[in-house]
Queue: 4 jobs
Job 1
Amino acid sequence: MKTIKCPQCGGPSLWDESNKARPFCCDRCKLIDLGAWASESYQIPVQPSDEAYEDYSSYDASSLPTNATKH
Ligand SMILES: [Zn+2]
């Protein structure tokens, strides 16, 4: 029966339909990995484009080129 390397603990993980946690070796590793992924998602910094938008908001709209309003 085929086994793969568990992405979480690096141990052998059974690659079979009977392993509901695959590619993880067990539910515990699966939950740990999902938890880590979720916590990382909260650490994504503000998009640079959002900061650029903040900068543009300080400009007088009438001074912007006309093609800048066609977004
Ligand atoms: Zn594991």
Job 2
Amino acid sequence: MIDNRSVIIIDQTIREGMQYRGLVFSADERMKILDFQEALGVDISQSAYPPAHESESSKVKKLCFKRESCKYNIHIAALSRAPVDDVKQMAECGLTDFHLHTTATSELLKKQSINDIFTSLKQAVQFIRSNVTGSSIEVSLLDIGKTDLDILEKCAKYLINRLSIDILSLPDTSGIMSPDQFFKRVKYISEIAKGEKTRIGVHCHNDMGMATANTIMGVMAGASVIGVSALGIGERNGIGDLYISAKCLKDKGYNLNLKIDDIDLFREYYKYIDKICYEKTGFRLLNYNTPFFGEAMLTHVAGTHATGNFGLFSKEEYFLNLLCGKNLVRKYLKKNKIEYKEDDLKRIVTKIKAMFALSVEFLKSLFFSISYQYSKILLKVIHINCSKDLIIFFHT
Ligand SMILES: [Zn+2]
């Protein structure tokens, strides 16, 4: 009987990350990513797509060798389509965890019958079971948001009841589903898997910014395997985020092997992925506004936020604008070691508010006449950094 309160993490940073525009992970980079994943307690690393190119096979072979020689607990998986020729290539890499994908969208069913799809899956599963000892098989039914429910049900019954695969993954490949739609569909299929050997997995794309939320809703609906990646890296704008998905599930009482309390190591892992991505593509994944790990997480601006314990972090960083209040300004002045008299605080707050209210139009008109570039720099200093000297100047 599957314990649905235990959630298996498939870190797809490497395989899905390779679908990020312009990115190819080298063998050394994959080794280092595997070290991070092992240290963080990831269950399965999905780390190659062998049929795509021989280099993928050789890289995943190296990972399997490293796993053996370092006696790592993490499992190494790779992805391919279901035809036996593809699966053979996977087996030659020394893998035991086979992740296959197929699709039964109405578009595809115009070209291929459902029975052909089932035959191909059956042959793949039989080949793996008779050639690889201790194998684990996951099958992803691509794009459940674009697959008719009756077809989805038929496929799920075949894979769960007839082939008894280990994981049936239900991906929102197009990233078009809202959390309630995703929940309903995953719940419907999860009912078929009740009492069976097959676990239900989810893998959600982020086209509508819902990937992490959908991942969590998938688990609430009955899934017990999640496919996620560091910083959500993946095709288009990516998939569910590894850390945030895991943190939300842990907070809800699910059991995970992932060491979500080791935030420093997670940060190091995320910075490493961000560095590789930036070097190869010129794009940053870890930016100021990134959930949880971005620096914006440490800023407070509204007066109300200076009086309570808002946000995730206890570290206090205050920034001024016209939304400030006495509490926030007091904290700001103290932190920046600016001397003031408590009796003057109200007056100081009024001046700061006036300064910010005026600053946009007034300073623009004042400095545009001097230099456009200079005015932009000055506005940034006032609005973002809000220099100590400037505040002293305005409040005295
Ligand atoms: Zn994907």
Job 3
Amino acid sequence: MFTFLLLAALFSVSLGANPHGYSVDQVAGLVIHDLDSNGDGQVSQAELVQELFIKWDSNNDSKVSHEEFVHHWVNTYHDHPDTTNTFFHNLDTDHDKFLTMTDIISHLPELDQNHDNHVTVTEFNAFLHVMHPDGHGHVHGQHVSVQPVGK
Ligand SMILES: [Ca+2]
Ligand SMILES: [Ca+2]
Ligand SMILES: [Ca+2]
């Protein structure tokens, strides 16, 4: 049993799963909580822009570089750097290695599905499941942690 769990843990780390065991759903909740500066449970475009291009932008060039994004995301949400790398490339729609307003604007239809200029946890969760490399794999991750009990 212990050996199985250990192997399962090692296996998920080798796949680049979250070393802290956060699911994509949990990360979505954490991200919305962090971005929601006025605490109304959803993220306005202003809150999104403020968080990304002020807090995540370490060198104040009004864009979030690959290094800045990976550093911030890995430290805050404890994703594996390889996972975060793939996530960044999915977000960087124009492939210039920076997240800018151009990238954000191109993601807005997916981020704000009901077009009310706010992103809810539900909307961001759906977005992460499309953009994040673990979005399709997290069900497998839960499967691994739940399955040994029945054995
Ligand atoms: Ca808010
Ligand atoms: Ca870009
Ligand atoms: Ca919305």
Job 4
Amino acid sequence: MKPTTLMLAMATAMALALPGLALAHDHSDHGAPAAATSSAAPASAYYKGLRGDYHAAQARWWKGNTHTHTWWSDGDSPPENVAAWYREHGYQFLVLSDHNRMQQDSIARGTLALSYSQWYPIEDDARRDALETYRKHFGQDWVQTRTSDKGVTEVRLKTLDEFRHFFEAPGEFAFISGEEITDSYQSNPFHMNAVNVHEIIQPRNGATSAQVIQNNLNAVLDQGARSGRDVLAHINHPNFRYGITVEDILPLRYATGEGFFELYNGHHGVENYGDAHRMGLEKMWDVILAKRIAEGDGALMYGIANDDAHSYTRWEVGANANPGRGWVMVRANRLTPDSIVGAMKEGDFYATTGVTLATLESADNQVSLEIEAEPGVEYTVEFIGTRRGTDLRGRPARDLPADLQGRASMRYSDAIGVVLDTQHGTTARYTAKGDELYVRARITSTKPHPNPFKAGDTQMAWTQPLLVTARR
Ligand SMILES: [Zn+2]
Ligand SMILES: [Zn+2]
């Protein structure tokens, strides 16, 4: 993030917060001046009402996941069990992103909302296990059940506003409301997460694949403009059933800070790495970046890692979408939805599957970073980019088998997304020569991922791309 932007954002947030602060003190019984009571009980109660830490003077890193499912759609546990997992595992923010539903009464049309009421049927062992955990953690008096006409136990799903008080605390944990807009084009899945939206968004559909994405993106951004909130939309798992190609994403109209996609999704069915005929998501990222910068309006695409967790009662690599496989670290002053999303729109975050950065600086044609080293673990940092003048043309893939499932992007030059430099150790620095369009860092550790997307994966991290200014 540019320091000037950060300062401006801080000043704006403080200006917005101050009138309310003054009001709270004006109405206090003590009538003490605001400065004298700033750390006393009434002020902290006021801050708690804001569901965020408004004391923080300096930016710090916050760990969060922007893609998670619960019983509100096809997750295997009630939202309280899900939130508890993340809270217990060191996350500070969480987006519960159910398919075409938020954790409230409203239901969008579309697929995968398994239960069309707030009463959720307990029909199998996984659900019985989840119900048992739910009762054990939250108590008999919290869990509401009834028996249907057919004799099936049903649980009443609580809304986000009913259960958020269990988890949220200033500077410790915050929910950011959201939804996975679950749309399709022909038979291909087109999913997009809307983050920090507060009203359900109906899948918008479209006459072409690119239009489906653009129409849903516009719906998210329109709600942001209407509400005055910082919202973002990220394109999900492009290689899930190979539904979304690089050519679907290229024509999208973005303003700066509006391009996000899942570089890494922890669901075992999403083909992050591609196959013999289709590119992996890192290559897709490089093609999009190179073409947007060299041929388009230069708006960057940011890469997100998340787990897209569905399964909290069954744990198995390759069979269950478990939590904790990937997440983002966001640098922001405050743990509030607007502050976190605002920082992400500035590109001030990185994606990780386990590697943590102690420092990350990215400005003035230079990227430097330091890794929080773990004993016995080795790290390789690769700086990746595309040089100016590289052939960016796509060529139709002509050798595809007739029975290939899904769709295929065009083929692009191997010179797109090349390793510019490789460094070993816990610190790394790259100074651009000026012939690169952008540069980004990929960190690979030797530490096995405890529950990876694919068996054998080691822990990694990816920084956001730095736009390189050409030397004259
Ligand atoms: Zn999805
Ligand atoms: Zn999902």
